[in-house]
Amino acid sequence: MTGPPAHPGHSVHTPLAPTARVGDAGRVILLRATDLGPLAFARAVREGALVPVADGAARPPDVPDSPGLRALAAAPRVPGWSVLSGSAALWVHGWRDRPPPTWHAVGPRGQQRPRRCLVALHSGVTAAVPDRIGPLRVAPPARACVDALRWEPPRPALAAVLAALRDGRLTADELRAAFASDSRLGDGYPRLASLVDAVTAASRP
User: Fold this and answer.
1) Candidate from 9-18, 99-108, 151-160 with smallest mean pLDDT
2) DSSP the chain
3) Per-domain residue ranges for the chain?
4) Taking residues 62-85, what's their average pLDDT?
5) What's the pLDDT band for 21 if we cut at 50, 70, 90?
6) Is the pTM of this model over 0.90?
7) Residue range 17-27: average pLDDT?
C-alpha cells in the first residue's frame, strides 16, 4: 500500500490517546482519527506525516505496512465474536492493496448485532475456521475468497479471486476444498457454485 511521501523532518506531535497502538520500544505504529482529532488527522494524512491504513487509521511513514498492522486497524470495526471474511479479510492478509467499501463478518447464528455495527453480519461455517492475526479473527484466504464470491458484487469479487489463482497465492483445489464445506441447501448455493466454476475455469492456462 502506498501513500503520500513524508515531508522531511515532519512528525506528529500529540499526547498518546488510549487508541494509539504502540510497538516495541514505545514506538507508535498506528494512530486513529480520535487520537488527533479529525481535522488534525486529515491534515497529517494530506501532508504525508501519516499514511492511511484504513478509514480513520494511519501509520507513520517509517512503519511498514503488514497484515498485523492492518489487523490492528480493522479490529475495532469487527465484533470480537465474529470472523472477518470476504474481500476485507483478503485485504488484511495482504492480498489487496486497499480495503473494500463494504466489510463482511461471520458469527454464530442468533448473535445480537451491536449498535452502530460497521460490518455486514452473517452466520455460516466460516465462524468455525478462523485464523488469528493480532487481535482480529479473520477467515483463511481460501474461505475468504468463497465468501467474497457469495456476498459481494460479482465483478470485483471474481477479479480478486482470479488474480489470486493466476499469481499462485491460491490453487483451484484450495478454493474448491473451502467451498466443499458449504451446504448444498444453503441460500444462493447454485449461484455460488457457478461463480466458483467460472473463476477456476478462467484461471486455467
Assistant:
1) 9-18
2) ---PPPPTT-----PPPTT-EE-GGG-EEEEEHHHH-HHHHHHHHHTTSSEEEETTEEE-TTSPP-HHHHHHHHGGGS-TTSEEEHHHHHHHHTSSSS--SS-EEEE-TTPPPPTT--SEEEESGGGGS-EEETTEEE--HHHHHHHHHHHS-HHHHHHHHHHHHHTTSS-HHHHHHHHTTS-TTSTTHHHHHHHHHHHHHHT--
3) 1-64, 72-202
4) 95
5) low
6) no
7) 54
